[in-house]
Write a structure and sequence with these properties.
Structural class: alpha/beta
CATH architecture: 3-Layer(aba) Sandwich
Number of helices: 11
CATH superfamily: Alpha/Beta hydrolase fold, catalytic domain
Distance between the termini: 86 Å
Strand order of the largest sheet: 1-2-3-5-4-6-7-8-9
Number of strands: 9
Largest sheet: 9 strands, mixed
CATH class: Alpha Beta
Helix content: 25-40%
CATH topology: Rossmann fold
Number of domains: 1
Shape: globular
């Protein structure tokens, strides 16, 4: 065997090195071995984007990191970082009403390309926690702080299969994390989703029995129609998304397929002047909803805000997670707020 140092060091030096190593070995022999550090779970990187469930994915959550806690007059707010996928930490907001033990939980997921700014707004937090409900918010895949270390040409729609599947998996993993806490009622979980978040809410409800109700606003879906006419898709990219190969990858992740089989309480609200989801796709989504669903439409954004502004949009999902209050004896039974038909609001 050839040693690169042979012939370059004096024999006395080599002998000293050998003697020191022998002394160290003798001392170490009589010592107790140091205990191994505890094994910490490693985030996974095996994920099946072809299915909504976690059955064929290996996502392992590491302990959540607490970044900030806010104690406000009417609510408390935690900002945590959760992680179960390599290179994809998620900012998670857990906002709880004061004076309520184990409140019901509503997940909030807004549309691409939204950020998490609204979860830092005090008035918004007061609205979503009003009535004694906890609110949990984050953003979907390839959105906001979760878009990093990716080429700019890759975005939510160009990677639609990944965006949808990983976000649906995230909903399940978020619920798994919340189940480890002892301050929330996970028997009463609802989900509010807008745009792409609405599509993800529908898909998540199809495989997640812990979700008891979903409320979706202008949900994306009916992918062949949506990709052909959505205003968010650049015209120069549209032909790529209408190819058979692309459509085949997202066919199993189309909310239209799963809506008819949902057993949860469902409300779909559409604003007809929204250009992100084509009118034909909105109509097909509404037609696919289960018979028990409440499907509503508004002619324009002004009419929608007139009917649902000031936090009224959140009342329906909350009403589905708690038993209705008994009417006073002898009083005429009032129509529930969530079931009222506003002017220009088709049921």
């Amino acid at each position: 065997m050839w040693y690169p140092w042979r012939g370059t060091l004096p024999r006395q030096t080599l002998a000293a090195v050998w003697l020191c190593s022998c002394v160290f070995s003798i001392q170490a022999w009589g010592q107790e071995p140091s205990p191994l550090p505890p094994v910490r779970p490693q985030v996974g990187n095996v994920e099946d984007w072809t299915t909504l469930t976690l059955a064929h994915s290996e996502l392992h959550a590491v302990p959540a990191l607490v970044g900030q806690k806010d104690d406000m007059p009417r609510f408390t707010r935690e900002l945590l970082q959760v992680k179960w996928r390599q290179g994809d930490p998620i900012d998670l907001y857990v906002i709880k009403p004061k004076g309520v033990n184990h409140p019901p939980v509503v997940l909030y997921l807004y549309s691409y390309p939204s950020e998490t700014d609204r979860f830092r707004d005090e008035r918004y937090c007061e609205r979503i926690t009003a009535g004694g409900f906890a609110a949990v918010g984050f953003v979907s895949a390839l959105t906001g702080q979760r878009f990093s270390n990716r080429p700019m040409k890759e975005w939510f729609v160009s990677e639609l299969q990944e965006s949808l599947a990983t976000s649906v998996h995230d909903v399940q993993m978020v619920l798994n994390y919340l189940a480890t806490r002892d301050d929330l009622d996970l028997s009463k979980v609802g989900m509010f989703g807008a745009g792409s978040g609405g599509a993800i809410a529908i898909l998540a409800a199809a495989v997640e029995p812990r979700i008891k109700a979903i409320d979706v606003l202008d949900p994306w879906g009916d992918w062949p129609e949506w990709l052909a006419g959505s205003g968010i898709v650049p015209e120069e990219e549209r032909p790529n998304y209408l190819k058979a190969e692309f459509l085949k990858k997202v066919a199993a992740l189309d909310p239209v397929q799963y809506l008819p089989g949902l057993s949860q309480a469902v409300r779909i609200q559409n604003v007809m002047d929204d250009t992100i989801t084509p009118k034909a796709a909105k109509e097909k989504m509404g037609a696919a909803a289960p018979k028990s669903a409440q499907v509503s439409s508004y002619d324009d954004t002004k009419m929608f805000f007139s009917a649902m502004g000031g936090g009224r949009i959140f009342q329906w999902i909350k009403s589905q997670l708690q038993p209705p209050a008994p009417a006073p004896r002898g009083a005429q039974k009032a129509q529930p707020e969530a079931a009222r038909i506003e002017p220009g609001h088709d049921d």
